[in-house]
Amino acid sequence: MKTKKSEATHRRRINWRREARLLPGYSLIFIWVIFTFVLVGWVAAASLSSTRAIYQGEVFSIAKNGLNFSNYIKAWNSQNVSVFFSNSLLYASVSSVLLILVAAPAAYVLSRFRFFLNHPIQNSFVAAMGVPVVMIILPLFSVVTQMQLLKQPFTIRMLMIFLFIGINVPYTTIFLLSFFSNISRSYEEAAAIDGCPPMRTFWTIMFPLAQPGVITVSIFNFINIWNEYFMSLIFANSDKTRPVAVGLYSMINSMRYTGDWAGMFASVMILFLPTFVMYLFLSEKIIAGVTGGIKG
Amino acid sequence: MKQNKTMVVAFLAPAVIFFCLIFIYPIIRTIAMSLFSVENVTSPIRDWTFTGVKNYITLAQTSLFWQSMWNIFRIWAAGGIVVMALALLFAVILNSGIRFKRFFRAVMYAPNIVSAVALATMWLQYVFANRWGMLTNFFSWVGLEELAATQWTASGNKFWAMTFAYCFGMVGYHMLIFSSGIEKIPQEYYEASAIDGAGRVAQFRRITFPMLKGVIKTNITMWTITSVGFFIWSQLFSTVTTDLDTITPMVYMYLQVFSAGNAVTAREAGLGAAVGVTLGLCVVLVFVVTNLLIHNDELEY
After folding, report:
1. Does the pLDDT value for residue A50 go beyond 60?
2. B96 touches A: beta carbon within 8 Å
3. Closest approach of chain B CAs to the CA of A283, in angstroms?
């Protein structure tokens, strides 16, 4: 801070008085963030150590105990974890792709055309985002049982995809709706002048323009479906159809009772890592997805 | 014009059909079911017998159900106040011009993208654990042996331990919503008030807080909706199937209808539907009350 000029050129230089005024804020956030890091760090370390080391409080002494990846291998092989994973992957990826095919056209029409049901539909979609699962689960269960859909793994998988689409249609539509409303109408006008029919205009021009919103909401849906628990517990709680969250829940429970703590923490990490790794790369998009669907 | 009509119908039909199948029909049927005696969830409608509000009366006489409502109320009210206060505090701090804002924001939101089963297990088996627990180690390091010896997940402490752990994860989400509201407040308001000599506290009271009314409403609504679905945390923190400390209405409904435990005295799926309707009404009630209490003043920004 020699002269005014140098201050202007080094705008990112630390202004200590300013930072000092922010100190209380910094310290609160530091406490929170450090707690989070210790929480995850310890569990990660414990998952790589051994039950004995956990008891002796030495999960971080890697030099002494080494890294036991065997906990992971043991946990992975103790039950059909690969089946759980492929189920979750199937449910989350297929549903989030199909959701776009269902919700994007609807969102576009709701954002562009005036017709008498437009606002009622929008309002009911917004209201549906507030409907608790308990309000809909019982009839769904009885209808599905009467249709004999819970007998075979194949029908259960189809059913889960169908349910995940249905549950997320309102949120996805409302999210994309605000996205389409922000795209200028001049694209469609130009396309109409060139004689492009409106439906083709949507798929060839408008849908690609909405790509950033589509990607954001898809990531968000993917993670939500991956972590979904209650519906999977009710409908897909069989060996061949369980997703990761439900499958690992019972694994964690049984390891708790047998006292295999290292294996239990490894199971927790297996459940934790996929969405966490996704988050490492996509956190900005995911955070945009949270605030995007909400009207301020 | 005619082409537009077919387009509207064709584009809307899938979404609306899904909506009717997953939301409209089940909601109507749940409401109807709560007024009937239904022996089994899977009983066809012709086997239902109309009993009026009998299911609701039975619920009102069931102490287990009241316990679950009391628990969810405490999570909603006490947890809600703490979560909202912390979320608003952190949102204000993150927008006060500190460094690494995006990093801190991402870390605070992270618990929300992790499966609740994993997060709850981390708390249960590490933070609250007896031998190697974070709290035990921390308190014995500080020298508070009495606190270090506390059994955090023992019967008397379990409820608050669970609520605390749950709230930790939720702060990040509500912080994001507050934060997006604060970001939308025009910066000129702060500059103008600073020229007039307003300090940080006055700025918060006179600008930030009043401008956040809409966001506060959103936050309360979202908090209520997620509270009503409180299930996994309760399952993980309970040691027996019917744990009075942790039971919530959703767990009660699950036990009642899908009868995983022996809490059930009568097989009655209508009761489960009545629980669902009660919870739905709670959400509506909170929504109406917040809208009456917080006027939006037609602020668009």
Report:
1. yes
2. yes
3. 6
Q: State the smallest CA–CA distance between residue B30 and chain A in angstroms.
A: 6
Number of domains in chain A: 2
Task: Clarify whether residues A61 and A90 are in a common domain.
Answer: no
User: Which residues from chain B sit within 8 angstroms of residue A109, using beta carbons?
Assistant: 7-8, 11-12
Residue A98, classed as helix, strand or coil, is: helix
Structure-token match 């199909």, residue found: A98
B181 touches chain A (CB under 8 A): yes
In chain B, the residue whose alpha carbon lies closest to the alpha carbon of A166 is B18
Single out the residue in A12, A42, A68 at which a domain terminates: A68
In this predicted model, what pLDDT tens digit does every residue of A236-271 receive, in sequence order? 888 889 999 998 888 888 888 887 888 888 888 988
- My answer on whether A60 and A96 are in the same domain is no
pLDDT at A1: 37
Q: How far apart are CA B267 and CA B263, in angstroms?
A: 10
Query: Percentage of chain A with pLDDT > 70?
Result: 92
0.95 surpassed by pTM: no
* Structural domains of chain B ordered from first start: 26-293 (1.10.3720.10)
Does residue A39 sit in the same domain as residue A88?
no
**Is the Cα dihedral B31, B36, B40, B44 positive or negative?**
negative
Residues A240 and A98 in one domain: yes
β partners of residue B36:
B50
Q: CA separation (Å) from A43 to A272, B122, B165?
A: 10, 7, 16
CA dist A128 and B228 (Å) reads 14
- Per the structure, the complete domain to which residue A274 belongs is given by 75-292
Mean pLDDT (chain A) is 85
- In contact, A54 and A46? CB cutoff 8 Å: yes
Distance from CA of B8 to the nearest CA of A (A): 6
Choose the final residue of a domain: A28, A45, A68. Answer: A68
Q: Within this chain, do residues A89 and A182 fall inside the same structural domain, yes or no? A: yes
Q: Does A207 touch chain B (CB under 8 A)?
A: no
If asked whether residues A81 and A134 sit together in one domain, one would say yes
- How far is the C-alpha of A51 from the C-alpha of A265, rounded, in Å? 10
A56 shares its domain with A124: no
ipTM over 0.90: no
| Cα B15 to Cα A187: distance, rounded to the nearest angstrom | 25
Amino acid at B281: L
User: Averaged in consecutive runs of 10 residues, what is the pLDDT profile of chain B (301 residues)?
Assistant: 78 94 94 89 83 89 91 94 94 86 90 91 87 79 74 81 92 92 85 84 83 87 91 86 85 82 64 92 92 68 43
CA distance B256 to B262: 9
Say whether both A259 and A188 belong to one domain: yes
Is the separation of the CB atoms in B165 and B120 below 8 Å?
Answer: yes
